[in-house]
């Protein structure tokens, strides 16, 4: 697809949005495996070791066999898709609670607390270290709620911020990651990836947008779905280069937000 051409297919949405969404990535690095799969690894080890200890108690054997199978399945799907990691983490929390409880009964509260803390450190450290690869928006949508409290028209806003805007106001949005399907995301991408003001205006009018809520990212930070493009029209708007048909209604530097309105014909 050429640099500035609008995506119109599900394949392009998958490439630009889902392909850059960490939730749909596998646990493909040691840090991510420890951070997001650590709980699953812990649960699988725990239930496997408990299973090996079973001798003649058939009921306990089958129960632990089922738990071990579940732990292995949860870890496997977490490795394939990071979005499933919370399930494996929950299994790890259960396994840790059981193990710490056993240790407390044998050695006391302090050794059990120390043991649990030690096991929690590696995933926390790995998650904090890996977070540098994530796109973190610095904008606070709550600040825009007072601007849009009576809004009933369509507002174009970053798809990651749209759910909060929908919750805080009565405004409509073009798209979110899990709302209005891929067609809404296509409309959003057409506007956000437009290189010229005229193309951006055409995309906004096609989506019936009346206002644009811009999130001003930190310097040198760009959304992944425009990373393959030169400077876009919306990026110029954030720096104050507005076309004649667009005017600024509000700006909040602390919140990192700019609210623009399309001028009527």
Overall description:
The protein is α/β, with parallel strands linked by helices. It has 2 domains: 115 residues, no CATH class; 126 residues, Rossmann fold. 52% of the residues lie in helices and 10% in strands. It has a 5-stranded mixed β-sheet with strand order 2-1-3-5-4, with helices on both faces. Helix 7 links the parallel strand 1 and strand 2. The longest helix has 24 residues.
Uncertain stretches of 5 or more adjacent residues? 1-6, 132-136
Question: Based on CA inertia axes, which overall geometry fits?
Answer: elongated
**Given the helix and strand composition, which structural class is it?**
alpha/beta
Alpha-carbon distance between the termini? 33 Å
- The helix fraction, in percent, is 40-55%
Brief synopsis:
With 265 residues, this protein is an alpha/beta fold. Helix content is 52%, strand content 10%. α2 (30-53) packs antiparallel against α5 (109-130), α4 (85-107) packs antiparallel against α5 and α8 runs antiparallel to α9 (197-206).
Structural key phrases:
5 strands; 10 helices; disordered N terminus; alpha/beta; 52% helix; 265 residues; 2 domains; single chain; five-stranded mixed β-sheet; Rossmann fold
What order do the helices and strands come in, and which of them pair?
Blueprint: H1 10-16, H2 30-53, H3 58-80, H4 85-107, H5 109-130, H6 142-145, E1 154-157, H7 162-168, E2 172-173, H8 181-192, H9 197-206, E3 209-215, H10 233-238, E4 246-252, E5 257-262
Helix pairs in contact: 2-3, 2-4, 2-5, 3-4, 4-5, 8-9
